[in-house]
Design brief:
This protein has no helices and 13 strands. The chain is an all-beta fold.
């Protein structure tokens, strides 16, 4: 039985959220894009992007950034973002419109000009959240 949290505020300071944990050999039988888990074999947080599990952060220093915009029901391009991504780099970011995860390369693309392009215009008043820097590591 699955449980969903929608618009839930979790307490901070002294609390933590536990996510599913499993080894590399034991993962969900039918994973869905956007699922997140902790891989006990690799000791890394990972997410599924329609074809494979990807590490969220690698060894080294990672700088994660967040850009936020508001949909108006008409506009499909948003920016400038605080980083520039070329076409094909969609899986390097996590994008949500409202509380809905967006599928990389299907729901949005990049042109290489610090703009994100959505296939459909985010609805009026919906929050567009882009979390990026997931592939930015510095060894050390």
């Amino acid at each position: 039985m699955a449980r969903m949290f929608k618009n839930t505020v979790f307490k901070s300071a002294g609390y933590a959220l536990t996510i599913p944990t499993g080894s590399s050999s034991i993962s969900p039988e039918h994973p869905v894009a956007g699922q997140t888990r902790y891989n006990a074999t690799t000791a890394k947080l990972e997410f599924y992007n329609n074809s494979r599990w990807n590490a969220v952060a690698r060894e080294g220093n990672v700088t994660i950034a967040k850009d936020s915009f508001t949909g108006d029901g008409v506009k499909t391009d948003f920016g400038p973002m605080s980083a520039n991504y070329s076409a094909g780099a969609e899986a390097q970011v996590l994008v949500h419109v409202g509380t809905v995860y967006q599928v990389p390369g299907t729901n949005y693309t990049f042109y290489g000009n610090a703009q994100i392009h959505f296939t459909s215009a985010p609805s009026l008043g919906s929050e567009v959240v882009i979390i990026h820097g997931l592939a930015s590591t510095t060894a050390g």
